[in-house]
Amino acid sequence: MVRFGRIRFVALFMSLFVGLTLVSTDFAEARRGGSFGSRGTRTWQAPAPTRTAPNPNGPVERTMTPTPNTATRQPQTVGQQRPGLFNGFGGSLMRGLLVGGLIGMLLGYGFGGMAGALGFLVQLLLVGLIASFVIGWLRSRREPAAAGGAPYGGGFGHARNASEPEQRGRAGFTVPPIGGGAAAPATQDIQLDKADLDTFERRLAEVQKAFADEDHAALRRLSTPEMVSYFSEELADNAKRGLRNEVRDVHLVSADIAEAWREGDTDYATAAFGYESVDVMRDRATGAIVEGDDELTETTELWTFVRERGGDWKLSAIQEA
């Protein structure tokens, strides 16, 4: 009995260990692609949908922007879904418990093994109790943490009057009418002109080229310090793995402005980009492709730009759409 108790303890320890390992894996994968950066006070709100990116999106996932307190949060909007209880830490822990149990079964202990059918039922009940506790704990933490705000009035599907013409920039860059709906606290909707749209289109190609060239000086000129830190981390990780990310032949297919607003002396604009590019990982020593295909692929992303009054637009966030 003593030996069996020790085996159960080891099996439970292995389950928790695997769960924590999966948490680390999820975090590592989120650094490549995903959603990162800052959108000012709207960081914790989902961007408005557009023709280019019509599907509901979530807030920025990885950011240095402090989480707003409960008093300043806005109610969660329709179509903006919170992560499920089996996503994030809870999902990783549950996967760890299940994987740990399977490992125990394969090794002849844990689920089943020495305790036979009765042991299997007892340990299954134990895992169920742990899962119930974890889910209840996560629910109690998540309930007051709903992020997001009121839908942006100038977004996709905004009803226009016959006397309110839709504005267009170059290359199908559509700008919705600004100022028709509720805005986040302490923000003011602003109007963009063709020069702004031209700048956003250039930034798309310039940032991609700077990243592919591993040009840190150019990245600092084109992006906020927060974005530079994320880019530098990924470039360092690629170098450590002996890889180089090649991005070329960037071509804008479609683009829309989801939101444009002002916070004090700072302007923000979130643009939805649909673009084609060749994006592959090459071995630094041999130049051989190790990830991706050497052909054009289409990508849809939301890029947020920021500028101080009278300054240049800089990239401040990227979100997959």
TrEMBL record:
Annotated keywords: Membrane, Transmembrane, Transmembrane helix
Q: Does the keyword Transmembrane apply?
A: yes
**Pfam families to which the protein is assigned, alphabetical:** Tim44
Any keyword Transmembrane?
yes
Q: Which residues cross the membrane?
A: 93-111, 118-138
Q: Where is the composition biased (Low complexity)?
A: 38-59
Q: Which domain of life is it from?
A: Bacteria
Residues annotated as region Disordered?
34-82
| Tim44-like domain boundaries | 178-320
Q: Which InterPro entries match?
A: NTF2-like_dom_sf, Tim44-like_dom
Biased amino acid composition, Polar residues: 64-80
Protein name, UniProt field: Predicted lipid-binding transport protein, Tim44 family
Organism in which the protein naturally occurs: Mesorhizobium australicum
